[in-house]
Amino acid sequence: MGTEDLVSRELPERRRDTLRRLATERDVWVSTAHPEHGPHQVPLWFLWDGRAMWMCTGAASATARNIRAEPRVHLALPDSFDVVLLQGEAEPFPAPQVPAEAAGAYARKFGWDPRAEEGAFVYVRVAPKTVRAWRGEPELRGRVVMRDGAWL
């Protein structure tokens, strides 16, 4: 599809489409950085609870190490045409301390409960501060759909 065929969505439609994708998709690219080790990017499964994204990673992973040193993260849904980018601060929860509602919903969505594993896992909660969403060049203007944690 060429961009000349695209019709720019209005803000309410972009917001609705973004929320639908957050509720239904499985994977997100998580970008972190460590002051000494530099940037790191990894795909993780995620759960959207209506306010924040929940992910899970090994407690000793580069992602967990990085967010302990620098909690600011960038998240991207994996589609280079229907772009959704989120920015926020990651809040780590060791598996035994994760809120039961979030851990239960995560386990139901993926059929896997990290709390039952032998290894140590960390749940990561990111409440976005900024969300950008666009489809192609016609939607670059006005791509911000959340600012300062509030949907526009």
TrEMBL record:
A matching Pfam family: PNPOx_N
Where would I find the Pyridoxamine 5'-phosphate oxidase N-terminal domain in this sequence?
Answer: 23-134
- Which SUPFAM superfamilies does the entry link to? FMN-binding split barrel (SSF50475)
Kindly give the InterPro entries that the UniProt entry links to this protein. Answer: F420H2_bilvrd_red/Heme_oxyg, Pyridox_Oxase_N, Split_barrel_FMN-bd
The GO cellular component terms are: cytosol
Instruction: Alphabetically list the UniProt keywords.
Output: Oxidoreductase
Protein name in the entry: Pyridoxamine 5'-phosphate oxidase
- Which source organism? Streptomyces broussonetiae
